[in-house]
Amino acid sequence: MEYTEEEYLMISGIQHFKFCRRQWALIHIEQQWEENVHTVVGELMHKKAHDPYLKEKRKDTLIVRALPVSSRTLGISGECDIVEFHKCEDGVKLFGHRDLYSIYPVEYKKGKPKKSDEDILQLTAQAMCLEEMFSTRIEEGAIFYGETRRREQVYFSSELREEVENMFSEMHEYYKKNYTPKVKKTKACQSCSLKNLCLPKLEKIVSVKKYMSQIFEEDRK
């Protein structure tokens, strides 16, 4: 199955979806968004990565910033913060260049490595787009974290690829149905940029359920 461009979802949405399916739906289906300190710092990090005046060429490496990517198979599109093209003997051909290059995507994040894998899934999705666009295989990439000032290497395993495919398939189903799922409140809700929009609705839902359960309990007495 292939998706049309009108059906494409944002690659970056996978990190929202992994963090919280409801958060993803509020942002991408209901078009709601609130900034907090985490999102502002993150945007500043990406602006630097996407600065067209920071183009680089280091010996046998070409560095491209804000490279648009997409996949008809996954039905997604977005931008890679940085893609490094390393000169090699068995790589891909690039327009305007005589040599062959391997592809190495790099994603920029503001904080430090997370216990969860939403950043890794986003980078994997970008790599899968690049593979489709360049008809090649990409084995690894990296995530640069602003807090540690270090790159964390990521190997694109078959398990990661399968999870990316399954998650975007689920996201497409929600999007087609215009469905915003309900979730249980957790500690992670406190750092969410949408908690002021989301939590009152969830609490209202919970209070109604509690009220109805009390009525049923009274009826049983």
From TrEMBL:
Belongs to the CRISPR-associated exonuclease Cas4 family. It holds the Pfam family Cas_Cas4. Mg(2+) or Mn(2+) required for ssDNA cleavage activity. Its cofactor is iron-sulfur cluster; [4Fe-4S] cluster; Mg(2+); Mn(2+). The gene is cas4. InterPro entries: Cas4_exonuclease (IPR051827), CRISPR-assoc_prot_Cas4 (IPR013343), Dna2/Cas4_DUF83 (IPR022765), PDDEXK-like_dom_sf (IPR011604). One of its GO terms (molecular function) is iron-sulfur cluster binding. CRISPR (clustered regularly interspaced short palindromic repeat) is an adaptive immune system that provides protection against mobile genetic elements (viruses, transposable elements and conjugative plasmids). CRISPR clusters contain sequences complementary to antecedent mobile elements and target invading nucleic acids. CRISPR clusters are transcribed and processed into CRISPR RNA (crRNA). This is CRISPR-associated exonuclease Cas4. Residues 12-199 form the DUF83 domain. Its EC number is 3.1.12.1. It comes from the Bacteria. GO terms for biological process: defense response to virus. Keywords: Antiviral defense, Exonuclease, Hydrolase, Iron, Iron-sulfur, Manganese, Metal-binding, Nuclease.
